[in-house]
Amino acid sequence: METTKLRDAAWVVLAGVILMFVAPLVLNFYTLTLLVIYGLLALSLGLIWGFGGILCFGQAAFYGLGAYAYAVSAANIGESTAPMLIAIAVPFVFAFLLGAMMFYGRLTDVYMGVITLVVTLIFFRFMNTTAGPEYQIGTARLGGYNGMPGYQTLNVPGDPSAYIYDSSLYYVSFVILLIVYVLVRLLLASPFGRIAVAIRENENRVELMGYDARFRKSVLFAIGGGIAGLAGALYASWAEIVTPGLFSLGQSAEIIIWCIVGGLGTLVGPVLGAAVLGYLKFALGQQTAVDNVLIMGLILVVVVLVLPRGVVPSLMTAFGSSSRRNRPNAVRRGRRGRGRADG
Fold this sequence. Notes:
Strand order of the largest sheet: 1-2
Oligomer: single chain
Number of domains: 1
Distance between the termini: 37 Å
Structural class: mainly alpha
Radius of gyration: 22 Å
Mean pLDDT: 88
Strand content: under 5%
Number of helices: 13
Helix content: over 70%
Low-confidence stretches: 330-343
Shape: globular
Order of helices and strands: HHHHHEEEEEHHHHEHHHH
């Protein structure tokens, strides 16, 4: 089973590498970079929700926190290497503390969803009120609803003048996505990951076996927050400005829709859901005939009704059923062939 999973992961990485070089033939680097960042963000929620069973309505909080952590630290440091690490560490620690508070408090899924959503809205509300000069961290002014521009974007480590942008930023972001995917697959294949999935299935039974389910859920929640923070840092470098809109309710809802449409319980599903729906939103945003929010809502309703498990799991099930139907015929033909040869 583990060999099969590793082989599947290798095929996914190979397909990702091919797609990385083929996609620029169809779309421009500016759009593709944003879609890759969306995929990384969706992967963070797909991990904690699809495999940990943790219902989080506020993944945008860690996304925005990572973006602001990067922007503030980059404006003060003047180089991007340390800020990238800070952008991962800050959401990781915050997510761990928030998760520990919820999990050790024995909150149910509904209350966890409400709390994570409220935390996101608190960040959104607060960042909109930071326009005054007193809201300054070092040399970085938060800027309130106007956002925060003017910080160092991604550069080659050790050389602040060697900016990574346009096509270079796209390839770096895609490679980061593939690396994170491989690391998450290894995490899920480890004893920690298997226990996390067991907690999703039956938390009480796991605790009766002697494992601290609440601590493990807190760690998994923090890992998802760190990945979202990494996506936020890449977004900050791509957009060259961070605004309170990163914490908005619409952003939180979009991440959930990406995972539901792509398919929970997989890592590829949320990534593909984010890329396809993100591009659809971009394309619909260029016209005024149809409300793009209405279209996104209709897509969600149709997928939930027709493919309740999501697109990727449904396709995997259909492909697996087709393979199982064809396998007995092939076996019978092989046996008849061997019989004729032996005779």
